[in-house]
Amino acid sequence: MIKKYYFLLFFFSLFCITYSQNEVDALRYSLFDNYTTARVSSLGGSFSSLGGNIGAIHSNPAALGIYRTDEVSISLINTNESIQSNYYNSTNTIDRYQLDLQNFGYVKSMVLDNNWNRINMSISFNQKSDLNKALRITGYNEQSSRISEFAQNANGLTVDDLNGFSDYLAYQTFLIDTLINTTQYETANHTIGQNQYANILESGYINDIDISFSGAYKDFMFIGMSVGFSEISFSQYNEYIEDGFDNNENNYEWGDLQSFNYNQSLSVTGQGMNFKIGAILKPSYFVRLGWAYHSRTYNSLQETYETNLQTTFINQNIEDQNIEERWTATSPLNYFEYQLNTPSKSIASIGVIIQKRGFLTFDYENVNYSSANLNSTIYQFSNENNNILNLYRKTQNIKMGAEIKIQNIGIRGGYAIFGSPFKDGLNDGAKEYISGGIGFQKDQYFFDIALIHSMSKEDYPLYGNIENNNSSQTANLKIADQSVIISCSYKF
């Protein structure tokens, strides 16, 4: 066996420019949580037709017009998230605890002496998405290996044309190597069957600051609008390992493969802008009808992306001694700026007041996730936008809640189901929220607490694209969140 000895360069010039932005990123920044203030959250997030609560303004800015006094409010959220993965009958569970500022706002109400009873304005903050996540996936896979994917992507390409963040690293570390034909590649494992491990750590958030205005016309019609400023921060570290290869003695030129470790590091920051309009009608004392429209959020994002790959081989020297050799390659640090337009949303709502004993409320939302769009001045994103169109769909979110009033105490319950954004059962993607809470009023002070339990399932491909629907490399995740929101507000 002929051996080649040379050092791999950490920074190399033979790579084609690639971008990590794709349909997965577009969906990540288009999905939002169902949390605002404790009162609204305990009602399943359904409060768009009632108003008088800062949490409702984020759904329907016309809800601001219901206010007759000034108010300041703050809400904190504590989340306990548990993610269970199942991959080839190997189960792993990771729990995560987090305390955050969920919502903060100030309302100013100005009384008018005409048919327009008042004009109100507010500024409010809300955490739209908690992007923190930690999961571990392990299993013994004898149907698929990531090495085969590296070779499949590389076949038909010269070394100069390989993806500099994945396949070229595999070539540099001898996971794959050229045969006599310089565009055909062999793999270091001729027989598939090995342990696979994935450790994924994500952190970040999507926050919104809304500046809202609303007016009340004869206390019959309430109209409102708001301008929202969004901030995105997200980072992901993905460690992927394969070892314990079956039938490894295959006379591969570079020795017997023991393991490889492929790491990906992603960091995204960005800013966005959107607007909302809404209206509420009060045709009778006990009925409220609401409607709202949320525009697309026009995001400008900045991303850095880097990968590295390390392999370990065992070789025998002339004295039949086993020698361990390690090879490492690191991609360039890729910096890229691009734009993402997330989907718009429309909301229809109804509230029924039961004298002074409580109310029932219902919200119906329409969101078309296939309308998300990636664009840049230096890259077309044609394939990625086609994938968004083909993989995602229009879906509906249903929210409902009820409150019973006993003197100065309110007892609440709610339910919400968010439809799956995936077409054709590609992934489950639906999410349920079951909530309850209690509120207490003392003069001008209001204290509310909500407990929300959410459940969802997800098919998570360890490698490859989710549209391939390849179960041999896909883990099943069960995600359960227990969140407690505490809100305090003061009206003056």
Structural account:
- By secondary structure, the protein is mainly beta.
- The protein has a single domain (23-491), classed as Outer membrane protein transport protein (OMPP1/FadL/TodX) (Porin, Beta Barrel), CATH 2.40.160.60.
- The protein has helices at 23-28, 38-42, 54-57, 146-154, 167-172, 382-391, and strands at 71-87, 90-111, 116-130, 133-141, 176-178, 185-187, 194-217, 221-243, 256-284, 287-294, 297-316, 322-330, 334-342, 345-354, 358-368, 373-375, 394-406, 409-418, 431-442, 445-461, 474-491.
- The protein is elongated and about 95 Å long.
- The chain starts with 22 loop residues before the first helix and ends with a strand.
- The model is unreliable at 1-19 (pLDDT under 50).
How much helix, percentage-wise, in residues?
under 10%
Question: Which homologous superfamily in CATH is the superfamily?
Answer: Outer membrane protein transport protein (OMPP1/FadL/TodX)
Structural class assignment: mainly beta
Total domain modules: 1
Offer a quick outline of the entry.
This protein is mainly β. The chain contains six helices and 21 strands.
Topology:
Blueprint: H1 23-28, H2 38-42, H3 54-57, E1 71-87, E2 90-111, E3 116-130, E4 133-141, H4 146-154, H5 167-172, E5 176-178, E6 185-187, E7 194-217, E8 221-243, E9 256-284, E10 287-294, E11 297-316, E12 322-330, E13 334-342, E14 345-354, E15 358-368, E16 373-375, H6 382-391, E17 394-406, E18 409-418, E19 431-442, E20 445-461, E21 474-491
Antiparallel strand pairs: 1-2, 1-21, 2-3, 3-7, 4-7, 5-6, 7-8, 8-9, 9-10, 9-11, 10-14, 11-12, 11-13, 13-16, 14-15, 15-17, 17-18, 18-19, 19-20, 20-21
